[in-house]
Amino acid sequence: MGMTPPTHFIQDRYISGIRVVIPILLWAVCQGRIAGVSPADYERYAQTEFTCREGITIPGNHVNDDYCDCPESGDDEPGTPACANGRHYCHNSGHIPTYVASSRVGDGICDCCDGSDEYYSSTQCENTCKELSLKKIIQLKKQEALIADGIKAKMRMLEQGKKEKQYQEKKREEARADLAAKQAQVELFQKAKETAEIEEKRELDEIASANASDKEELHGQTTSASEKEEEQSESVDTSAVESGEDGEAQESDEESFPYPEQYAFHGESQERPADSVDESPEAVDSSGDEPFTTPSDGLDKSDVNSPTVQAAKEARHQLSVAESELASLRKEFDDTSKLLETDFGPRDAYFGLHSECVSFISGRYTYRICPFKDVSQSEGGSSISLGKFDTWGDNYSTWMFTNGQRCWNGPERSTKVHLSCGSSNQVLSMSEPSTCVYEMHFQTPASCSETELERIQDNLTALQPKTHVRDEL
Asked: By CB count within 10 A, which of 156, 211, 305, 371 is most buried?
């Protein structure tokens, strides 16, 4: 139940322990309204008792008495500067109502365009609401057109994004099926390869054994011939040494020497004959052959052109190709799954941005943002990472890009991207508020909101009948 408050009253107060009587403004009344209170809250204030939001109940005549009884909310002093946390409602007749801090009431500065915040001060405020309304309407109409165009573009993006997402989902399911089929094929090729290599090894072992037998036989024949030649040579040499022309043994004052004279060594000062040969075991192999090796050593599969070896070769090739195709399918499946699991905002409005990149030139630098991937800065031929996409922020109104290239003697670079509504995708500005920490403003139709458009249209409806602004504005 409402009540009509008196203008002033006398209330006892205690100041420093002394009882004094102070005239206090009970309820500031401005043009029949409770000062600083919105029409929606008027009934709450026009009662015999008032309850603060923090739960404190005070007499109704303590509202707007220039004493803060609600220390947390400041609810009881919307028309005086007594509470630091209070709010003063500006009616702003002819313009858009708004709130200012109640601490600004009566400070000699006109904060409300209708001057209602200085209703009891000596400051004379000119009513500028109509002039502000004209400017505001022009501004709102521009915003309305921008958002309306953005919403149309957003609808197209949503439709395209929906189709692409369906395509990606179908692509993932096809990749899943292809992956399973290719995995089964790889397993079959693996078994075929193992079987073919068993047959190949058996045949190669047989060839190696046959080669080894042939080589051993050849080695034996060569050894027998060499031994026979050596025996004949020794027989001739012995006969020459033991008998002279008369068939008797030759004697010498020196100790008999079992070699022909030209090979005899008669002292350190005597040089060996020029045609002497080093016949030490290290220098000459008695058989004259190369060192013996096993038959399987050095056997080259490419020298064998049998069907069995060719079958094993083909089996290895088929497995290699199938494994490569399996790896490609697995990567395609993983990439598609990662894309579909990414949060593209409400209604997947930002889905269409995953494959786009937008550049922005500022001074000597070119900045490039690829939504949901990375942000970079380039100059000349060099490029620096300003961060990789990390997460959303501020209720889907910002993007965070982190873990960029580390600054010299500083942190890793990072970028915060502020999103706003626009009819196209474009970077509006780029700044570096602190070392290696960047901020970008990015405009996109995906950020356009029907709710924001309705709010602007409501404000226009509230303003236009009062100002009679022509449509061309």
From this structure: 371
